Amino acid sequence: VWHAITGYWGGVRPGVKGMEEYGSVMKYPEITKGVMENEPGWKTDAIAVQGLGLVNPKSAYKFYNEMHSYLASAGVDGLKVDVQCILETLGGGLGGRVELTKQYHQALDASVSKNFPDNGCIACMSHNTDALYCSKQTAVVRASDDFYPRDPVSHTIHIACVAYNSVFLGE
Q: pLDDT tens-digit profile of 128-148?
């Protein structure tokens, strides 16, 4: 099953009946001026404009464990946890990006260990150093961005990214 590190790509909306116990708050990515210059799409990105419902980091394990135990009981044997790099933009007021990432990865690692004992987890969009160094359980990391087989121009950069990231990641 594929899910975002925040539960869903827009997170967990605060005030939704049955989800109050997770203590979600609306957070908006804090994007630096330099990144905004290089990635102008952030100005209209749905999360930047509408926000993301971020589960309280102290409730992240409960959130993951309840979701993952349900999935495991339904026969799911692994996960792809996507958009992990979003945490680095949401750490304001929560101890900073490294602290937020550390808390989320500790919770994720503990839940994966408990519910998917064969370490059935693929990390995705997790190449920022915060995620790489805070994750202790996940053994498989996606080494590339999306691949577009019908776009020949994308093939060379895709192969180069996989090669360089594989060297960096040690595989």
A: 888 887 787 776 777 777 889
